[in-house]
Amino acid sequence: MPSLGLQAWAWGRAPAHKKGQRAVFNELSALGKYLGQAAHLMVGQPSYQTYAAHLQSQHPDRPVMSYEEFFRERQEARYGAKGRMARCC
């Protein structure tokens, strides 16, 4: 029986014996995504998608910042206003 190849897998046409492998791959993919989010939070880089979803559901009257505005605002909040480093001394 010829192999269906990666493209067939991507469209969900994998043979029955490959479906178990797909489930394992999906679980590993979800784990990788979770670990990536955890790593971003550990270094202080919050998720734009989480921010946008929260703002739309909890504060629909407020405008949602663009990704660039969000990234700049988070950097300023963490490292100090307008590119200057916040120092204790």
Description:
By secondary structure, the protein is mainly alpha-helical. The chain folds into two domains: 15-44; 46-81, no CATH class. The chain is built from four helices and no strands. The chain has helices at 5-10, 16-42, 48-58, 67-79. The radius of gyration is 21 Å and the shape is elongated. The mean pLDDT is 76.
In short:
By secondary structure, the chain is mostly helical. Helix content is 64%, strand content 0%.
- Please give the oligomerization state of what you see: single chain
Distance from first to last alpha carbon: 71 Å
User: What is the total number of structural domains?
Assistant: 2
Percentage of residues in helical conformation: 55-70%
Rg from alpha-carbon coordinates: 21 Å
